Amino acid sequence: MPDEPDVKLIDVARKAGCSPATVSRVLNHNAKVNTATREKVLQAAMDLAYVPNGSARSLRSTKSRLAGAVIPTLDHAIYATMVNSLQARLTENGVSLIINTSSYDIDREYEQVRLLVERGVESVVLVGAAHRRETIALLEQRNIAYVFTYTAKPTDIGAAVGFDNEKAGRLAARHLIDLGHTRIAMLGGITINNDRAVSRRDGFVAELRDNNLAPLGILETPYQADGGHAGMKRLMLADTPPTAVICASDIAAAGALKYCRQNDIAVPGTVSVLGFDNLDIGELTTPELTTIDVPAGEMGRIAADYLLAPAAQRQHMRIRELPLRLVVRGSTAALLR
Amino acid sequence: MPDEPDVKLIDVARKAGCSPATVSRVLNHNAKVNTATREKVLQAAMDLAYVPNGSARSLRSTKSRLAGAVIPTLDHAIYATMVNSLQARLTENGVSLIINTSSYDIDREYEQVRLLVERGVESVVLVGAAHRRETIALLEQRNIAYVFTYTAKPTDIGAAVGFDNEKAGRLAARHLIDLGHTRIAMLGGITINNDRAVSRRDGFVAELRDNNLAPLGILETPYQADGGHAGMKRLMLADTPPTAVICASDIAAAGALKYCRQNDIAVPGTVSVLGFDNLDIGELTTPELTTIDVPAGEMGRIAADYLLAPAAQRQHMRIRELPLRLVVRGSTAALLR
DNA sequence: CTGTTAGCGCATTCAG
DNA sequence: CTGAATGCGCTAACAG
Known about the structure:
Domain HTH lacI-type (chains A, B): 7-61
GO molecular function (chains A, B): DNA-binding transcription factor activity; transcription cis-regulatory region binding
Strand order of the largest sheet of chain A: 2-1-3-4-5-11
Largest interface: A-B, 60 and 60 residues
Number of strands of chain A: 12
Protein name (chains A, B): GntR family transcriptional regulator
Keywords (chains A, B): DNA-binding, Transcription, Transcription regulation
Structural class of chain A: alpha/beta
Largest sheet of chain A: 6 strands, parallel
Pfam families (chains A, B): LacI, Peripla_BP_3
Distance between the termini of chain A: 79 Å
Oligomer: homodimer
């Protein structure tokens, strides 16, 4: 099946016996076109298996129906889930999504955004509130809509949909304090270039301080089971081991749990473990994980709605703080005396 | 910062004191250009923060540097991981990736592919070997490179990178047979529109038959923990419960494990449980999961390499069957008599 | 309601 | 090595 010369709009016009403009009208903004000719055009397009040329279309109309997302990685469910719903919502509205990953590196993020701009995206989804000046400047200058996710902290100009990471850190600490713990450690995320991890840590520390407590230790660990495992080991072998540990993610928490199981450390008897994200895995470990729910899917959906909204309406949608929810399961318990 | 009128190639030319053609040459195929003027052009482009217009570029050159992927969902690590490495490899080579999801529906898949064609993608990644005729015809007709993943079964014309799903089914069965099991059930994936689940089931049944065994039951379950939980329940409450169960994925297997734990059914003492995919979660359950490794990341990388290769070379890369690996951990054991 | 005209921004001929 | 000219396929004005 050799490639027949691509059929274009003008071929459809010829076959339908009308002008290219009319074909364009039928295929697009549905401006008033006689029903009879409309049918003929549609028929002709069908017969010829016509597929419009998006490049030509964008070039002429300066509308690309393209959006971009730059996320740290797709290899973590919390981002994959967000992108999944973002993509679904955008596609429902005829917008295609280009995805790029930054590996948590804001310089790479900038490069990727540049690429997206080059591709002609009309909107961009970013993660977090910390970005290079150039990134934002570029977006502003090209008049591209953008929104930050996983944060509720917009810049002067940017919008945000997500949650307050500091509150998240406080919420976690609060839960453990309420259970009577005083020796609380954190197995936090890597804070370099990750403003969300920073805020959560700060919130955690602040909440302890407000209760005249100090963290027993703050370790940073990648969002992986191994990291949680190794971190828990360090924590539990210390002179003064914690009675409660806040983990950067459910994955890390599951790794921490594994360390405890392997070493006959009772959870939550000896040490309480708190996860973060509310991933599926939290219900599959033994004990099941107490965690903080991150509404990833909803974030994707809302981000899409924001970007799809007419520019005028966007003003009123600039901050969308989603509620944080503590999910209490079996891995945390009151401190035994 | 109001939107200054977008700077275009001709502006760069003016600023650099040369013709647009020269600027184009500098920015692209690096055809011989005097080093001095090249520098001036680069400088001017920098100063003006010039970003080329991709649409115009593609329209003129008929090269879009765009690829597309249509996968069932991003909400399952096995696909997200593949896409993650696919994207990384493509980006390294200046190709952007548009992602669409089909929800395991080949009619939707066709729609998405059409959209991708419209966007001008030069190559497409699909999952599995079962697709609508129209999908393949469209790709062939437009001369778009495409590759199937998670399968080693190419069509007459399409390429494939993945593994033999029937072998996977057989491998799973083999492991349990070797352990002395005869009452073996399957908690398989939904087979509608999923040729891979079909093949794995067929391989499973075939291997049993080759050993004069018949499956004790085959249930279909979505790739979720709940499904595994519910399926395991049905299986274990049957008149003749199995002594070994093959699950569609590690997620389902983890759900099955949970059911057993809740009901004091010993794993692997009373029943062995075999997972599939080798996700992180497999090392975090109790017991840890015996599973079959699916090289998702490698698939993405290889698929990218295939699509990036010059058309001539692709002929020699059409099938790439990756090895399947049984990962034995604690959830399977020899049958006790 | 429909056709005609004129580019969108760029890469590619073809001459110099 | 460089410039001038010519559309890529389509849609937005403007007439009719």
